[in-house]
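Re: weekly structure request thread

Next one in the queue (1079 aa):
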Amino acid sequence: MSFRLPLSCKSQESSDGSQEEEGKADNVDEDMDVFEIPGKNSSPDKLKRWRKATLALNASRRFRYTLDLNRAKDEEQGGDVSKFRAGARAIRAAQLFKEALARAKERTEALARVKERGLTSEGFGINPSKLVSLIQEQNIELLQEYHGVEGIAKLLDTGLEKGIKDDPEEFKKRKKAFGANTYPKRAGKSFLVFLWEASQDKTLIILMICATLSLIMGMVTEGPQNGWYDGASIAFAVILVIFVTAISDYRQSLQFQSLSDEKSNIQVQVIRGGRRQKVSIFTLVVGDMALLNIGDQVPADGVLVTGHSLRIDESSMTGESEPVRKDSKRPFLLGGCKVEDGYGVMLVTGVGTNTEWGQVMATLSQDIAEETPLQVRLNGVATFIGKIGLTVAAIVFIMLFIRYFVQDFKKSDKPLAVVKRIVGIFSVAVTIVVVAVPEGLPLAVTLTLAYSMKKMMADQCLIRRLPACETMGSITTICTDKTGTLTMNQMTVVKAFVAGELRDGDDFSSFPDNVKSLILHGIAHNSSGSVFKSKEGAWEVSGSPTEKAILSWGLKIGMDYEALRSKVNVLHVEAFNSVKKRAGVAIKLETGEVYVHWKGAAEIILEMCDRWVDVDGTEGPLDERKALEFKNVIAGMAASSLRCVALAYRKLDPAEVPVSEEERATWNMPETNLVLNTIVGIKDPCRPGVREAVATCQVAGIKVRMVTGDNLLTAKAIAQECAILTPDGVALEGKTFRNLSDHERLLTARRLEVMARSSPTDKLLLVRTLKELHELVSVTGDGTNDAPALHEADIGLAMGIAGTEVAKESADVIILDDNFASVVKLVRWGRAVYANIQKFIQFQLTVNIVALSINFIAACRSENVPLNAVQLLWVNIIMDTLGALALATEPPTDELMKRPPVNRYDPLITNVMWRNIIGQAAYQITVLLILYFRGPDVLRLKGNPARINAYNNTIIFNAFVFCQLFNEINSRKPDKLNIFEGILQNRMFCAVLFVTTILQVMIVEFLKRFFKTTRLSWRYWLVCLGIGFTSLIFGLLIKLIPVPQKPLFRMKSKQHGKHKRHSKKHSHGDSLISEESTV
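Done, posted below.
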C-alpha cells in the first residue's frame, strides 16, 4: 500500500489529445494508484474506481462530500439549466400562437388603463407581468408601444442619467411592487437527515440488534431489575455515537452552506442618485440602472439604455453559441448571461423569479461537494487499516467463540444465557470493527476544510473548490499580476509629456488651447469611467484605477466633464481589453467635425502615430529622431516605476464614418496616421508588506513570478522594489517568450521572474511550460481573458475587487482584497490542512494499533477482554469525532512557511510519524499488557476474583483513555520537543481535552453499570494519570531518535517513475541555461 499524496498532479489536459491519453492511462493504472486523483478535472472512471475500492461501513456518510457523477454527466450533456430552459421554451412556444390575439387585445386595454388611471402597480405605471412578458417575448414592437426605453423608465420612475433615488424607502417600495432579486433556495438537510445518515453505519445497526437481543435475554434470565443494563448500555453508546457524529456533520454542512451563499453574492455597479456605486446583486431592484463591462454577469433581466460594441454570451439561456450584439434594435438582456465585449448601461425590468435565470436557479441546488486528493488518499489508508481490523475482529470472534464452547458452555444450564453470551462475544467483535475501520479519517479532511475555509474568509480568501485548500500547500510557484495585487491599485498621474515638454502631473501651466481641448475630449469621451459632483460640491470619480487616475488628472487641468459629454455625439466605441491594450472612440463635435481618439499602452500608441503636437500646438512629423526621443521619455518614466499611457487622435472626414448604426457596429476605426497628443506617467505604489510576503514565499521554497501587461522597464522596476527580480533572474516580454523554441522555453521558464507586455495567451503558455517542468503552479488573474490560465493552473486565484465574474467562475479561490499578502496566507492554510491531517493520522493509528493489540492478545489468553463493546464505542468517539475536532482545527503557524512545499510524491505517513506511532504504541501496549497479566499483583488489588477483575479492567480502560489524551498533546507537534507551544491559542483543543476528561470521570464514577466499570480510589486515579503522563515523557524521548530521510514505506507508481525521469531530463538541461544567455 502506497501512502504517497498526490496533492495535485494535473497533467496537460488542455493540450491536444491529452484527455484521450489520460483516459487510456486511467484504464491501465495499477491497483496502488486507485486512491490517487489529480487536483482538477479527474476523469469519472477514476472517481468511480476509488469509490468502488473503498471499504466503507457507512457509504452515505463517507461519500457525502464527493462529486455527484450523475449530475456531472448531465451537465456535460447540457445540464439542468439546459433541460429547464428547453422545457420552458417548448411550453412557451406552444402557447405563443394560441395566446397571440388575446395578448394583443390585453395590451391595448392595459395601455388604455395606464393612460386613464396613471398608476397600476404600487405607484408605478406598469405591472410586473407586463415587464416579464416584454423581456421573455423580446418584442421590439411592444417596447415601441411603451415609447421605447425612455417610456419604460418613465413608467418605472427612473432617470436614465441619475437612476433611482438612493433611499431605503424607495428600495422597499420597489421590492414590494416587483419583488426582490432573490430566489427560493432548496432547503438544506435538516439535523434529522444527518441523524438518519449517521445511523446507517452497518456495524452500528448490528450492534443495535445485539443490544436488543441482549436486553431481552438479560431481562428474561436476570430479571427486569438487573438484566437490562448490558443491552441498554450498548444501545446508549450506539445512540451517543450517532448523535455526536450527526452533530459534527451538521455543523460542517452549515459552514459549507455559508460558503455557498458567499460565492453567489456578486457585486454589481449601479447608478443611484446620480452616483456610481457597488451593491450586492441581491439588493438590485426594478428600475435600477446597472452598468455592464467585459466579463460581468448580467445581474437581472432588462433593456439596454446605452452601449458600445456590447456583445453578450447568451449560451447559458438560449443555447446560442455565438455572442449576440446588443443595440437599439436588440436591446433585451437576460439575467445570468455574460458580457463578452464592450460596455453599456441597462435598465432593470425583472428580478428574482420574474426572470428566467431566477426560475432556473430556484430549481437547482448549490452543491460544492467534490472529493479532494487528500480525502481520496485517506480513504485508501482507511480501507487498508479496515481490512486489517476486520481480520483481527474475525480472529477474536472465532477464538472467544471456541473458548466459550470448550470451557464455559457446560457451566450454563439456560439456553438463553448461552445465546446472550454468544451475542456478547459477537458484540465485542463487531465493536472492534467499529474501532478498527477509521471512518473518521477521510471525513477529518472535510472537518478541517470546513474549519479552515471559515478562517480563510477572515483572511480574505474565498474558496470556490474544496481541493484548492490542500493543493495550495504544495504550490511551488506563484505567477502573480502586478496591478492591484503587488501594488495598491491607487493610481495618480505624476508625470505628463505634453506638447513636447515633460512636466509634473500637477503642473497645468502654458497648455496651448487647441492641445488642451483635444486632451480633454480624449479623456472625457474615451473612458469607461464617470465623474459625478456630490452634494458637497466635490468631484467623485469612478471606473478602473487607470481610468480614475486619468479622469482625475483631466479635472485638475480644467475638464468640465458634463459639459463635454453633453455637446458631443459618440459615433463608435472600441472597448479596452488586455489583448489590444488600447481603447478608442469616434466622436462628432457640435461643429460637425469628427475625431477619433485612442488611448493605451504608450509604446503601442506611439507605433500608430506619424505626427505629434508641438509646444505651440502645431502638428509636426514624427520622424525617427523624434520617435527615439519619445521612447526615451517612456523609458525614463518606466524606470521610475510609472505606468505609461499615451493619448492620440486623428481628424476624420465625416464621409469616412458609416451612416447607419449597423455599419458602425462593425466599423474598424482608423488606427494609423495618428497624432500623438500626450504621454502620462501613472504611479501605483507597492502595497505595504508585499516585499516581506515575497520574502516569506522564497523562504518557503515558492518561486514568485510577475506576469503583467505593463512596459518591461516598469515591470522590472516594480519587481525589484518587491524583491521578485533577482540578479540571476530573467525578465522579458511576452512576445519574446512566445517566439522561443520549446527547448529554449523550458530552459528560460526556470529562471523567468518577470514577463512584461504579456497577453492572456502568454500567461497560459507560461503555466503550461511550468507544469511541464513539474511545477505546481498558482496563477492570479482578474480579466475575462485570464480564464484559460486560471483554469489550466493547479490553483487559479481570481481577484475579488478587480476581477470579472468570468474570471471568478474559472478560479479555485477568490482573493477578496486583491492583496498578494492574502495569497501567502492561503499557502499557510494549505500547509496547515495537510499538517493537521498528518497529526490526526498519527493519533488515530496509535489508538487503532493499541486497541486492536490489547483485545487480540487478551482474546488469545482468555475470554475476558479488558475493553468491552461499550468502552470501545466511547474510544471510537474520542478517536474519530473528538480527536478530529482537537487536531484538525490547529491554526497555521509561521513554522510552516519555513519548510519546503509539500511534495505530492512524498509518503502521507512520514518516517517521523512512523517513529512516533510505533514508539507510542509499544509503550502503551507494554504498560497495558503488564496491567492485564500482572495488574492485581503490581497494584496489590484485594477482594474476591470478580471484584479484582473488575477493578483491574477499569484501571486498564482508564489508563488507556488517559494515554490517548496525553498522546493527543504529543501529536500536536510530531517533530518538535515543545509540544505545548501555542496550545492555549487553540481553544477547541483545550475544550476537547477538558470535556473528554470530565466525561471519562463520569463514566468511571457514575455510569459504572452501563460501562461495566467500578469506582476507583484517588490512588488508582493517580496511577492512571501517571501512566498517561508518562506517555507524554516517553513521546519526548522518542523524538530524540533520528530517522532516515529516505521513506521507509513507499511503493513507486508509474506516475512517480515518470516524474523522476522527467526531472532528470530537465536537470540535465540546466547546464545549458548559462549557454543560452541570449534567451
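The two ends are 45 Å apart (CA to CA). The chain has 40 helices and 26 strands.
Next request, please.
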